[in-house]
Specification:
By secondary structure, the protein is mainly α. It has 14 helices and three strands.
Length: 243
């Protein structure tokens, strides 16, 4: 005899990030303090070591036998000075390490509205991800920056991606710049590449050449260089020069 199966039971998404975040907020069991430009941040060595090979090495790989034997026997908490990072950036790093996500978009966007991509919170988090060996944090930053790539920002975003080994973001920027080249070369960001990262300019042009080869099969397409001289972009649109 066949019996009908019971209805499926939905399992909520993991809430481990919420509980670890609560652990950070309540400061229960903290055993390390970070001093960042005068601000103090409490944390847990085991959590940081589990999330980052950098901190695992910092806290445990170089710990002496004497220090290991003293673990848990005293009330003194180790304090570490961070002198190459802003407090808001380190706070966002801890937020990620405990909650496994970025701070909200309002914080990320507010930080980048009046500054270069390198000085934005997202840009500085990319640097922190590289320093602390946090590939998932880097990928989250790549995803965020990818959504905000524009003609004016793509060149400097490309430079940022290249500096911090953000492979996927770099690929997106190269393709976007190639598709909108005549507009991109009129931006201050492209001038930045010319002065600081000439090799990236060459990569953009090689990407343009690759796009032309793909488009040339079966379709009569105008040369990108002809489009540039004619005031258009690589998609064939007319672009009004900046005054």
């Amino acid at each position: 005899m066949d019996y009908s199966r019971p209805h499926s039971i939905e399992v909520p998404e993991s809430d481990i990030g919420y509980h670890f975040g609560t652990l950070l907020d309540t400061l229960e069991g903290v055993d390390v303090i970070f001093s960042v430009a005068g601000e103090k941040f409490h944390a847990h060595k085991l959590v940081l070591a589990a999330r980052s090979s950098f901190f695992r090495s910092e806290f445990f790989d170089h710990e002496s036998d004497e220090e290991k034997n003293e673990t848990g026997t005293g009330d003194e908490i180790k304090e570490i000075v961070i002198d190459d990072m802003d407090p808001v950036v380190f706070k966002a790093v801890l937020h990620f390490m405990y909650r496994d996500n970025l701070v909200n978009d309002d914080e990320l966007m507010a930080s980048s509205s009046d500054c270069s991509i390198f000085d934005s919170l997202a840009g500085k988090l990319m640097a922190a991800a590289d320093k602390y060996e946090l590939p998932r944090l880097r990928l989250l930053c790549e995803s965020y920056l990818c959504k905000h790539v524009s003609v004016n920002s793509v060149a400097t975003t490309l430079a940022l991606a290249d500096r911090y080994h953000a492979i996927e973001l770099k690929s997106v920027c190269l393709k976007f710049a190639a598709e909108n080249l005549s507009a991109v070369i009129r931006t201050e960001g492209f001038d930045y590449l010319k002065d600081n990262c000439p090799s990236l300019q060459s990569e953009i042009l090689r990407t343009v050449a690759g796009c032309e080869e793909q488009c040339s099969s079966g379709v009569k397409s105008q040369s990108v260089w002809a489009q540039l001289s004619d005031g258009g972009d690589t998609s064939g649109r007319r672009v009004r020069p900046r005054v």
